[in-house]
């Protein structure tokens, strides 16, 4: 941990660093490739909408020795053409959802499932969901997402500037697209838990971005009054200065979410935990990536097109060219003064100085002998 702290301190002071902004075209290419893959997966496979959105019946059985695969075959034989999804719950119980069933169809299906699974009919819990309820949830989710994005853009434009607001919006859309695309590729069911997870990651994905933007805002104050760094270089220093903090917060946030996803969902068989935790896990990871590799480099690109920043970059390059030319013209590494002849000091030490430099009359004062020469 001490080594990590040392690295973080050196990154913050600018002693070491990685050129994130300079290699932004590589990150843009990677992000575009991932985003295209997510969009293609979404277009080809589509989202596996849960019964809450499509409507149907959910049957929850008590503990049974029948496996989920066997229960899937038995439920499909009973349901006919309706889509069936079987999930294993904790304690050996099963959750069987069949889309498109109405009240009249659900009762014979409940009896047939109880017979096939060898459980009492009264112990099979049945819940009916209408498609209108799911449509209402979807509409409210879209409305909440739109309001959130508008408020975020307005806040960032006021607190920082419009370029940062635009970059944050692009990074946010990037994170949501990747998360939804992975849902389509993996085939996880989209439930109200998924909607909750997607709305939750909106804030998380912006957290690291705002931290870097705040550091960049402070570092770029009165930037045109200096000629040491360009805007892109200051943006890169801001990323490196907050890099360790971003990694630490992301890892700390991902660990409990990974526990929900792999332990809660995989071992305990908790269905809704899978829906929420997958959205959170992918969204947190994508948000940490976009804040470093997408948002800040994009701000540097947009800001670098301003005439003032272009002029600053030219001044910085000109100053560095002059410094390099001076360094190359110095053949003698010693700092020799003009007319540099060697003169003897009072104690016989040779010093470098001008040809006609007068000797100090009080040079002998303060010596133990008190004599003058």
UniProtKB/TrEMBL annotation:
InterPro entries: SecD/SecF_arch_bac (IPR022813), SecD/SecF_bac (IPR022645), SecD/SecF_CS (IPR022646), SecD_SecF_C (IPR048634), SecD_SecF_C_bact (IPR055344), SecF_bac (IPR005665). The chain crosses the membrane at residues 26-44, 141-158, 165-188, 194-216, 247-270, 276-300. Signal peptide: none annotated. One of its GO terms (biological process) is intracellular protein transmembrane transport. It is a multi-pass membrane protein. PANTHER family: PROTEIN TRANSLOCASE SUBUNIT SECF, PROTEIN-EXPORT MEMBRANE PROTEIN SEC. Forms a complex with SecD. Part of the essential Sec protein translocation apparatus which comprises SecA, SecYEG and auxiliary proteins SecDF. Other proteins may also be involved. Belongs to the SecD/SecF family. SecF subfamily. This is Protein-export membrane protein SecF. It comes from Streptomyces inhibens. The lineage of its organism: Bacteria, Bacillati, Actinomycetota, Actinomycetes, Kitasatosporales.
């Amino acid at each position: 941990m001490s080594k990590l702290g040392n690295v973080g301190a050196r990154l913050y002071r600018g002693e070491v660093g990685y050129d994130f902004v300079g290699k932004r075209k590589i990150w843009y290419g990677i992000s575009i490739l991932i985003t295209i893959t997510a969009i293609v997966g979404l277009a080809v496979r589509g989202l596996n909408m849960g019964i809450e959105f499509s409507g149907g019946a959910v049957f929850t059985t008590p503990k049974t020795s029948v496996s989920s695969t066997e229960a899937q075959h038995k439920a499909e034989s009973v349901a006919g053409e309706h889509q069936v999804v079987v999930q294993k719950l904790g304690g050996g119980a099963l959750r069987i959802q069949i889309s498109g069933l109405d009240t009249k169809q659900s009762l014979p299906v409940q009896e047939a499932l109880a017979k096939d699974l060898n459980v009492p009919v009264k112990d099979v819990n049945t819940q009916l969901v209408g498609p209108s309820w799911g449509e209402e949830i979807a509409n409210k989710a879209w409305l909440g997402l739109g309001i959130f994005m508008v408020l975020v853009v307005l806040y960032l434009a006021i607190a920082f500037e419009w370029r940062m607001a635009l970059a944050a919006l692009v990074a946010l859309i990037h994170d949501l697209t990747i998360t939804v695309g992975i849902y389509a590729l993996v085939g996880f069911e989209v439930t109200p838990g998924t909607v909750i997870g997607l709305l939750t990651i909106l804030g998380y994905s912006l957290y690291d971005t705002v931290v870097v933007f705040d550091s960049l805002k402070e570092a770029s104050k009165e930037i045109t009054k200096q000629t040491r760094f360009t805007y892109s270089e200051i943006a890169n220093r801001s990323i490196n200065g907050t890099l360790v903090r971003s990694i630490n917060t992301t890892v700390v946030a991902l660990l409990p979410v990974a526990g929900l996803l792999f332990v809660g969902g995989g071992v305990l068989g908790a269905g809704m935990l899978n829906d929420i935790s997958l959205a959170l896990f992918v969204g947190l990871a994508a948000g940490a990536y976009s804040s470093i590799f997408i948002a800040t480099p994009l701000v540097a690109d947009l800001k670098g097109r301003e005439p003032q920043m272009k002029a600053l970059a030219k001044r910085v390059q000109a100053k560095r060219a002059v410094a390099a030319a001076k360094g190359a013209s110095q053949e003698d590494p010693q700092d020799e003064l003009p007319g540099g002849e060697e003169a003897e000091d009072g104690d016989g030490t040779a010093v470098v100085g001008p040809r006609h430099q007068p000797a100090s009359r009080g040079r002998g004062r303060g010596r133990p002998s008190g004599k003058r020469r």
